[in-house]
């Protein structure tokens, strides 16, 4: 067996199951789960119809590169959404469909990392655990870059020692962030782009939450958008990961894409050809329909705004709570340890949240996930309101 398998940490939800084991919550309260970032809004009907109308495509072996019409739809969406002139996005060489970004984030690291030179993969801390597992299995050392309140929950690139940058082959950024919802600016992207040029590493930007934002007039900045604005129109060293899971409430479709630096994308295509993970043809047509429509995405954002407003209005008098600029998470500080808070809340209120320490590691003398819980506002509005009331009752009862 691969010896690196022994380095993998238990997944956050394994830890959560252990934390809840042996506890019997009150039977008179229906269970509410706000721990998993799985969208619960309905998948738009037109996406389902596009899938059904192309089931005859199941008779075909799909190509790893995907249908040209899908890559073109993605390139056109990138151009519209991020104000990138169309001539800078080549659907033939710079866009690659993937079966959801979880699979792609993992496999991309295996293709990019050269294990012969003591490589480092830098990642935000807290983080999506796929970043860490992918780095470890590729033979790289993770470097956990703390994202803390003092820096608006964004990575502080100035804090990274030069010896780390010299060994860095890949850095993950996640904007809007999971779990904090913080958004990187053009200036922050520009600083990282200069570092990538200086030290020759790849930037992998996880942008799965860019379409869930609070201010309709101020959508989050994307890495390719920033690269183009600062003169890197070929997106050298830049690769982004996008998904329909959150944008279109289609997590079961397993559809996303990778786009950016043509040289990197083409090498990654070579890897994927052997990896054996082409997107089924019916899924590709459903994806085309999704990327070509924005109205369902605007409606989706409005549903989340309503939940954030109701949830925060109930809790703002009893705890420190703020509205993130994007994502569907609330990163809530806890008055006691995050694990105690989550365990007692489940025991008393039959409500499941995810302890922040399950999403982070000790780094530079701190664990930035401690004394926080991640709340995913994915349930229907009524359930989110009920959850907020239960949390309020719990906090007041603990005082």
UniProtKB/TrEMBL annotation:
Cofactor: pyridoxal 5'-phosphate
Highest taxon of the lineage: Bacteria
Lineage summary: Bacteria, Pseudomonadati, Pseudomonadota, Gammaproteobacteria, Methylococcales
One biological process term in Gene Ontology: lysine biosynthetic process via diaminopimelate
GO molecular function: pyridoxal phosphate binding; succinyldiaminopimelate transaminase activity
The organism of origin for this protein: Methylomonas lenta
Aminotransferase class I/classII large domain residues: 32-391
Keywords: Aminotransferase, Transferase
InterPro entries xrefs: Aminotransferase_I/II_large, DapC_beta/gammaproteobac, LL-DAP_aminotransferase, PyrdxlP-dep_Trfase, PyrdxlP-dep_Trfase_major, PyrdxlP-dep_Trfase_small
NCBIfam families: DapC_gpp (TIGR03538)
PANTHER family in the cross-refs: AMINO ACID AMINOTRANSFERASE, L-GLUTAMINE--4-(METHYLSULFANYL)-2-OXOBUTANOATE AMINOTRANSFERASE
Protein's name according to its UniProt entry: Succinyldiaminopimelate transaminase
Coiled-coil positions: none
């Amino acid at each position: 067996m691969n010896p690196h398998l022994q380095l993998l940490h238990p997944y956050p939800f394994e830890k959560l199951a252990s934390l809840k084991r042996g506890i019997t919550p009150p039977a008179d309260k229906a269970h509410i789960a706000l721990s998993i970032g799985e969208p619960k809004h309905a998948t738009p009907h037109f996406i389902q119809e596009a899938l059904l109308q192309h089931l005859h495509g199941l008779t075909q072996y799909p190509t790893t590169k995907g249908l040209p019409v899908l890559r073109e739809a993605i390139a056109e969406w990138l151009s519209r959404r991020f104000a990138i002139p169309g001539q800078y996005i080549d659907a033939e060489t710079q866009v690659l469909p993937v079966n959801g970004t979880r699979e792609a984030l993992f496999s991309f690291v295996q293709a990019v990392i050269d294990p012969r030179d003591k490589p480092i993969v830098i990642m935000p801390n807290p983080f999506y655990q796929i970043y860490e597992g992918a780095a470890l299995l590729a033979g790289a050392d993770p470097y956990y870059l703390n994202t803390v309140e003092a820096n608006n929950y964004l990575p502080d690139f100035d804090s990274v020692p030069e010896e780390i940058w010299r060994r860095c082959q890949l850095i993950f950024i996640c904007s809007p962030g999971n779990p904090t919802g913080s958004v990187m600016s053009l200036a922050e992207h520009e600083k990282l782009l200069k570092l990538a040029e200086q030290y020759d590493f790849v930037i992998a930007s996880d942008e799965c939450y860019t379409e869930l934002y609070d201010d309709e007039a101020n959508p989050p900045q994307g890495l390719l958008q920033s690269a183009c604005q600062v003169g890197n129109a070929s997106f050298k060293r830049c690769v982004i990961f996008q998904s329909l899971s959150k944008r279109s409430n289609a997590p079961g479709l397993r559809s996303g894409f990778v786009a950016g630096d043509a040289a990197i994308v083409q090498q990654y295509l070579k890897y994927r050809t052997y990896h054996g993970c082409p997107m089924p043809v019916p899924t590709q047509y459903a994806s085309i329909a999704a990327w070509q429509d924005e109205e369902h995405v605007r409606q989706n954002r409005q549903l989340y705004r309503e939940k954030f407003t109701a949830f925060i209005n109930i809790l703002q008098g009893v705890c420190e709570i703020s509205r993130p600029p994007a994502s569907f998470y609330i990163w809530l500080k806890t008055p006691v340890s995050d694990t105690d808070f989550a365990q007692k809340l489940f025991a008393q209120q039959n409500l499941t949240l995810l302890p922040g320490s399950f999403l982070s590691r000790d780094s530079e003398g701190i664990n930035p996930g401690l004394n926080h819980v991640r709340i995913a506002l994915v349930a229907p509005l009524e359930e989110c309101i009920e959850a907020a009331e239960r949390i309020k009752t719990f906090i007041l009862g603990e005082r």
